[in-house]
Amino acid sequence: MENFFKIDLKVVGARIRSARRELGLTQEKAAELSFITGQFWSLLESGRERASINTYLQIAAILGLTLDDLFYDDAMALRVHKSFSYEGLLADCSDYEKAILSESLFALKTILERNRS
Question: Which residues are CB-contacts of 12 (< 8 A; sequence separation ≥ 6)?
Fold first, then answer.
């Protein structure tokens, strides 16, 4: 049986690199924000290493992506063509989900503020 869920690490790495560059982050800064080493970040971008799901989640959060964006072609294409708005993202969320997202955004903002220097 063919493996329909095979992940090409080089493609994932290229997506990570592209998103990082779009944000104007160096590998070192992105790695620091993701709590991994610069060397490991470099290996991920080149597709020579794989990360844990927790690390991929952290990387996706730092880059403003989802795991679908990192791993699947169609999700990346759809995201590029959608008009981005926070209201649209939150439209179908419950109050509880909005509270979780708000707390997560606040925590991420705090991390970014600490690392501006």
Answer: 44, 47, 70, 71
C-alpha to C-alpha distance for 69 and 60, rounded to whole angstroms: 8
Looking at residue 115, what is its pLDDT? 80
What pLDDT sits at residue 83?
A: 46
The answer to whether residues 56 and 67 touch, using CB atoms and an 8 Å cutoff, is: yes
20 alpha-carbon distance from chain centroid: 9
Distance CA 101, CA 92 (A): 13
Given this model, what pLDDT does residue 1 score? 40
Residue 95 has pLDDT above 60, yes or no: yes
* Domains of the chain listed by start with CATH number: 1-82 (1.10.260.40), 84-117 (no CATH)
